[in-house]
Design brief:
Number of strands: 0
Radius of gyration: 37 Å
Structural class: mainly alpha
Order of helices and strands: HH
Largest sheet: none
Mean pLDDT: 81
Distance between the termini: 54 Å
Strand content: under 5%
Helix content: over 70%
Low-confidence stretches: none
């Protein structure tokens, strides 16, 4: 009977040691999990910041292109105003055919301006889509690296 009691005491001690070891392991795993979650959150914020920087850069580029186009059109408008004042006296003596040609030229200029504006907007949207795709791919790659 003493042997059974000793054997049971030894088994209880081994089970308690196993339990203690598993509790320590659980604590270590909890700490590692907290560190990884914090790192994941930090990286997520960094990625979000980079995405915003890239989106802002694309928008700034579009704004600069539009400002350039506006400046060119304003210069063209001033030149046209000056030219029309100078040519006002000469215009009265021109025939109707030359006036129609000027209208056609102005219309063509307006069409070119509209096409340029459309191209700028398409470029801006394309740039933004490309930036977003690149950032999504980078984010996916970083997320995968976190789990390896």
């Amino acid at each position: 009977m003493g042997e059974t009691k000793l054997s049971t005491s030894l088994e209880i001690e081994q089970l308690q040691n196993e339990k203690t070891r598993l509790e320590e392991e659980a604590h270590t795993l909890d700490e590692e999990l907290k560190q990884l979650e914090t790192r994941w959150k930090v990286l997520g914020e960094k990625v979000a910041i980079e995405e915003l920087k890239n989106e802002n850069a694309a928008k700034k580029e579009t704004i600069n292109q539009l400002k350039t186009k506006i400046g060119l059109l304003e210069t063209q408008l001033q030149k046209s105003s000056t030219d029309s004042t100078i040519n006002k006296d000469a215009a009265t003596s021109e025939n109707s055919e030359s006036q129609e040609t000027a209208k056609d030229t102005a219309y063509a200029s307006e069409e070119k301006q509209e096409k340029d504006e459309d191209i700028i907007m398409v470029m801006a949207l394309d740039n933004e889509d490309e930036v977003n795709k690149n950032l999504e791919a980078e984010q996916e790659k970083k997320n995968q690296e976190l789990f390896y």
